[in-house]
Amino acid sequence: QGSLLETCLRSIRERSTHRDVELVVVDHETTEPLARRIIDGLADDPNAVVIEHRGPFNFAAMMNRAAEAATGDVLVLLNNDTEVVTPDWLQSMAAHLDRPDVGVVGALLLFTDGTIQHAGVHPGLGGLMGHGHKHRPGDDPGHLGRLRFAHRVAAVTGACLAIRTDLWHRLGGLDEDLAVAYNDIDLCLKVRAEGRAVILEPRAVLHHHESVSRGYDDDPIRRARLQTEVDRMRDRWGDRLDDDPAYSPNLTLIEPGFMSADPPRTTPPWRT
After folding, report:
1. Residue 270, pLDDT score
2. Can you tell me the mean pLDDT for 156-160?
3. Residue 18, Cα to own-chain centre: how many angstroms?
4. Rounded alpha-carbon distances, angstroms, from residue 209 to 19, 157, 214, 224
5. Which segments within the chain are labelled E, that is strand?
6. Of 6-15, 160-169, 207-216, 243-252, which range is least confident?
7. Helix or strand run (H / E) with residue 64
8. What is the dihedral of CA 225, 227, 230, 231, to 10 degrees?
9. 49: β partners
10. Whole-angstrom Cα distance, residue 191 to residue 99?
11. 79 to each of 1, 214, 243, 259, 261, how far by Cα in Å?
12. Which letter does DSSP use for residue 93 in this model?
């Protein structure tokens, strides 16, 4: 998917106001001619590093190898199918990481049509984990205006996730047994278990052409792998997996969420 990679890299270089950026690109057995030319061309870029990854797709393993090669104080995991929209996205995200009580920061991600793809992850919304405000207009203020301000969420997607490098290494990076799904959620839960916040910064906006390069989990092998990872998360976190600092139990778990539950999901205290 060379066209996606080219768009991603160009948007970082040309639209980002923060210039002190090191690009660490993971080459997973790339054969497409355009992508191959782009990756090979990074050899002449003093601010770029290319890491080779072979074998089955394992997002966690690829990010762990990339983090080992990175030299910056802040790591930003970024999918190749993302594109910078707001020039100060890096400053907006990294500023929160100067706060000792913050561990991870995520961005507002939009589909190509400008509607919301990701504005924080909420347990139980449409399944094990779901994205709130999905498909609402990109400039939607969100439930009670929450998308006008940075706020705590249960988790954010690894498609665009910022964390301090020292914290990443202390927590052991991503769990490689969670090869594709939920490794980002697992990391956010580990951060919160330390008493640190996971923040959604809606002023940092990127387009996310979701799952274009890898595809969806819609074949039997991928579905089986996904179920294994769901089971692993349930075994590891138990009831803590359902704890959400940003979603009222009075709201529905039907996507896109943020509507009153009917019937209520909670029992009034006078009926207990």
Report:
1. 86
2. 97
3. 20
4. 24, 14, 11, 24
5. 23-28, 48-53, 74-78, 82-84, 102-110, 116-118, 121-123, 129-131, 151-152, 160-164, 197-208
6. 207-216
7. helix 59-69
8. -110
9. 24
10. 14
11. 12, 10, 27, 30, 34
12. H
